[in-house]
Design a protein that fits this description.
It is a single chain. By secondary structure, the protein is of the alpha/beta class. The protein has a single domain, classed as Rossmann fold, CATH 3.40.50. The chain has a 5-stranded mixed β-sheet. The longest helix has 24 residues.
């Protein structure tokens, strides 16, 4: 029952941001625009999606709703990463120069490297992780759920990062008020 509630919550949480491709201040998102440029010039792109999920709510607040905060974070993380991948595939599915690193491989490599993704990687870790995953680019996100005056605000910051140089090619943010 608790798992079903977590999955339902994840769908509700992300209903306003089902695809990060959606319009961003009335424009195509900067991350998708930059990906489009790279795909069009034929740059080989292998993306590893990395992210963090945080909240300002206490574990007790989750318990009061019959939920486990750690399970909620895992569910949200899986949902966001799935939606990012689906959004990119929907837009660039025919591109032969674009692929994703399998998410199970990402988790396995993080465990092997004894890393926990906090949103920050040293140059050495970034290069090693990119090499082990076969990734040319990281698509990172930070999701944060916070209480608002009336309701809840979900904040998402996304970046497209070139692994070799560490250059941030594009960044975007979105706030969804619930």
């Amino acid at each position: 029952m608790k798992r079903n509630i977590c999955l339902i919550c994840a769908c509700i949480i992300l209903s306003g941001c089902a695809s990060i491709e959606r319009s961003w201040q009335g424009k195509v998102t900067p991350v998708y625009q930059r990906l489009d440029e790279l795909v069009k010039v034929g740059t080989p792109i292998t993306i590893a999606v990395l992210g963090t999920v945080e909240t300002s709510f206490s574990p007790e607040a989750f318990k009061a709703q019959g939920l486990d905060m750690d399970q909620w974070k895992k569910t949200i993380k899986q949902e966001i990463e799935g939606r990012i991948e689906a959004g990119v595939f929907n837009k660039f599915g025919a591109a032969t120069n674009l692929k994703f690193v399998d998410r199970n491989n990402i988790d396995r490599v993080f465990q092997e490297m004894k890393l926990a993704f906090t949103g920050v990687l040293s140059n050495e870790d970034r290069l090693q992780l990119g090499k082990l995953l076969g990734a040319s680019h990281f698509m990172t996100y930070q999701f944060n759920r916070m209480p608002a005056k009336r309701g809840i605000d979900d904040h998402i910051v996304s970046r497209l990062i070139e692994v070799e140089t560490g250059t941030i090619l594009a960044t975007q943010w979105q706030t969804i008020h619930k």
